[in-house]
Design goal:
mainly alpha; two-stranded antiparallel sheet; 2 strands; 74% helix
C-alpha cells in the first residue's frame, strides 16, 4: 500500500510542482519599496507633464520628460533584473525537484522491481494480466513499472482534457 501511495504521489507531484513553485514565487517575490517609490515618482511626473502645456513651458516640460525617461529606465532595469533572478531560481527549483523525483522513481524501480503495487482478484485483468505484471511476474497484479506508466498516461490525458 505504501508503494502505491508513494508512486502515485510522485507522479502527481511531478506535474503539480511547477505550478506550486510558480504560485509561491508570485507571493514571495513582490516589488521592493525602492521600485514602488520609483513607480509613484514616475506617475507623479507623468501627471505633472500632462498638466503643463508643451508649447508654453517647453523647457520645464523637457526637463520633466528627461527625468521621467531616466526614472523609467531605472525602473525597467530593476524589474528586468528581478524578473531574471526569479525566473532562474524558479527554473532551478523545478529542475532540482524533477531530478530528485527521477532519482526516487529509479530507486523505487530498482528496489521494488519484483514487488506488485496492486494485487487484484483472479482473472480481473485476464487479457493483459501478463503485460501489467511484467517485471514482477505475480499473477493478477500490477507491477511498479506498469503502475507508473498508467499513472503518467492518466495524468497527461487529464491535462489534455482540461486544457
Amino acid at each position: 500500500m505504501d508503494l502505491f501511495i508513494i508512486a502515485t504521489a510522485s507522479c502527481i507531484l511531478d506535474d503539480i510542482a511547477p505550478f506550486l513553485i510558480k504560485f509561491v514565487f508570485s507571493r514571495v517575490y513582490v516589488p521592493n519599496r525602492y521600485d514602488v517609490g520609483l513607480q509613484k515618482e514616475l506617475s507623479n511626473l507623468k501627471e505633472e507633464m500632462a498638466g503643463i502645456s508643451m508649447v508654453d513651458e517647453f523647457a520645464r516640460y523637457i526637463k520633466l520628460l528627461r527625468r521621467s525617461n531616466n526614472v523609467e529606465g531605472i525602473l525597467v532595469k530593476n524589474v528586468k533584473q528581478r524578473t531574471n533572478r526569479v525566473l532562474k531560481l524558479r527554473m532551478l527549483l523545478i529542475y532540482v525537484f524533477r531530478a530528485l523525483n527521477g532519482i526516487l522513481i529509479l530507486r523505487l524501480l530498482y528496489m521494488y522491481k519484483n514487488e506488485p503495487v496492486i494485487i487484484l482478484p483472479k482473472d480481473i485483468l485476464w487479457p493483459i494480466q501478463n503485460l501489467l505484471s511484467w517485471p514482477c511476474q505475480h499473477e493478477n497484479a500490477i507491477s511498479l513499472l506498469m503502475w507508473l506508466s498508467i499513472t503518467r498516461l492518466g495524468i497527461s490525458a487529464f491535462k489534455k482534457l482540461h486544457t
